[in-house]
Amino acid sequence: MSETTADRLVYRGKEYTCGIDVTLAVVGGKWKASILWHLAQQTMRFSDLQRQFSDTTRKMLTQQLRELETDGLVHREVYPQVPPKVEYSLTEKGMSMYPILLQMGNWAREHLRD
Amino acid sequence: MSETTADRLVYRGKEYTCGIDVTLAVVGGKWKASILWHLAQQTMRFSDLQRQFSDTTRKMLTQQLRELETDGLVHREVYPQVPPKVEYSLTEKGMSMYPILLQMGNWAREHLRD
DNA sequence: CAGGATCCAAGATGATACTG
DNA sequence: CAGTATCATCTTGGATCCTG
Lengths: 114, 114
Description:
Chains A, B: Residues 18-114 form the HTH hxlR-type domain. Chain A has helices spanning 19-27, 32-41, 46-52, 58-70, 92-111, and strands at 2-3, 9-11, 14-16, 44-45, 74-79, 85-90.
C-alpha cells in the first residue's frame, strides 16, 4: 500500500479512499472472512475446506484462496504426490487479522439482535 | 440476529455462517465504511456527503445510507423546510463500530505495504 | 436540496464438464 | 485430489431523467 495525494491510497493498482476500504477489499470477499477464521483454527486441506463450505463451488473456493494467497494472508503448500495433497494455512499476516475478525464477530452478536 | 442450528445465524432473513459475515454484510458495502468514518467525525448533510464522495452517484450514496439506516447505524434527520435539509449522523450502534473501523485502517497501514 | 424511477452495462457468482 | 475452462445467470453499479 502506498500513499499518493490527499489521503488517497493505492494498493495493487487500485485507488482507495482510506485504509479501511483496503482492508475490506482484502478480507471482505465472499467467504474470505470465514476461510480465515477456519484456517486460524487449523491447517486444512482443500477437501477439508470443501466440506466446511459445502454450499460453495470449488471454483469460488479456489478463487478466494488464490486472492488471499496473493495478498499474503494464506500459505499454500503443495505436496508433489499422487493423488495430490494441498494444505492451506495462515501466514503471520493472516494471523494478524484474526483479532479483528473476532471483534467483528463479537460486534454482531452484541449489537445486531433482530 | 438470531441463532438456528449448528452455528448458523440469521439476520434480516438471510443466513450467515458466522457473526463476522453478518458484520461484513452490514459495513462491507461499497462506501459504507467510509461513510461511517466521515459521520463519526461530524454530522453531515446530504450535500456534504456528496462533496466528500464526488465520484459516487447520488443513487449509490442514498442507497448505502438507507441500508445503514435500516441496520440502525445511521440516523436520518429530515427538517421540514424548503429547500429540504437532511442531516445524517451516527447512532450509538454506529459509534460502537468506529473502534473496529480504526483498527481495520491501521491493519492496512501496518501490514499491506506494496 | 434531496431524493426516486428506469434502463442498461459490467462484474460477480453458479452449473457443468474436463484434466493431470 | 485438487483443480481449470467455459458458458449461463444473477446481482451491482452507473447514466440519465423526473419530482416535491
